[in-house]
Amino acid sequence: MQLSRMQDIGGCRVVVEKKSDMDILQKAPQSKKSILKKTYDYINNPKNSGYRGIHLIYQIENSREPGIRLIEVQLRTYVQHSWATAVEICGTFLNQQLKAEQGDNKWLYFFKLVSFLLADSENQLPSKISRLDLDNIRHEVVNLEKQLNVVTKLRSFSASIYMLGQITDEDLPLRKDVKERLKGFTKNDYILLEQTVTSMTNTKINITPYKKGESRKANQHYLDLEFENRNNPNIDVVLIKVGDMNSLKLSYPNYFADSTFFCQILQNLID
């Protein structure tokens, strides 16, 4: 693909409080050096995954260097952003491309259904969805949440990210034993997380670090733990690359707050 055809080689995201704020931004005056070429309305026409938001594709002119440059501007509400963040976090920890609509069908279906409930909470529910449909969706969401243990898993994942994300931040305290075990990590290393959920607010996390040359050993340990705990829904075993964790941290600097916000919304919807 030619670079001039890529719609998101560069861009930015604006997260606002409500849909009316997005409308204001869309109507904002454009500079002479930027031309709005295309608008993707994923609110009136959500993606099949349930993703909602507005994407604006601008053509940027640069007098110093010839050629077309396309820049994507994403507009989301806080609620829409929390949904997208939750999908990203779950995709990383479950090692599935949920964001690209690939992975376990139950997880994909769950996030798609939750999107309808979130749209209704923002008065953006598609007209084709009746109140009866919405009641059925809510019932399915409750059942799937219980099957997948979504809220507990997300809180557990967030706690893991929060703890591991402190590795390079000297301003935040970290347990000495964890800091020692994580010392010397590089982006090519692996972390095996064994998360045991003891309650809705308490999660025990056991960390086993592996170096780059120990990938086979790490995978075998992961498979052994998966097999041992296959019938225990309260234990999750995740093998991740530290590089993936860093990417998640860079892409979603507010991952902990976003996930917490999503869990709060979801819990309210379930209640």
General description of the model:
This protein is α+β, with helices and mostly antiparallel strands. It contains 9 helices and 7 strands, in the order βαβββαααααββαβαα. It has helices at residues 19-26, 78-94, 105-121, 131-148, 150-164, 176-182, 215-228, 242-251, 255-270; strands at 10-16, 34-41, 54-60, 69-77, 190-199, 202-210, 235-241. The strands form 2 sheets. Strands 1-4-3-2 form a 4-stranded mixed β-sheet. The chain has a 3-stranded antiparallel β-sheet with strand order 6-5-7, sandwiched between helices. Strand 5 and strand 6 form a beta hairpin. The model is unreliable at 166-175 (pLDDT under 50).
Helix and strand succession? EHEEEHHHHHEEHEHH
Strand content: 15-25%
Main β-sheet description: 4 strands, mixed
Low-confidence stretches: 166-175
Distance, first to last CA: 48 Å
Helix content: 40-55%
Strands in their spatial order, largest beta sheet: 1-4-3-2
The beta-strand count equals 7
Number of helices: 9
Overall geometry: flat
Structural class: alpha+beta
Radius of gyration, CA atoms, in whole angstroms? 21 Å
Mean pLDDT: 80
Layout of strands and helices, then pairs:
Layout: E1 10-16, H1 19-26, E2 34-41, E3 54-60, E4 69-77, H2 78-94, H3 105-121, H4 131-148, H5 150-164, H6 176-182, E5 190-199, E6 202-210, H7 215-228, E7 235-241, H8 242-251, H9 255-270
Parallel strand pairs: 1-4
Antiparallel strand pairs: 2-3, 3-4, 5-6, 5-7
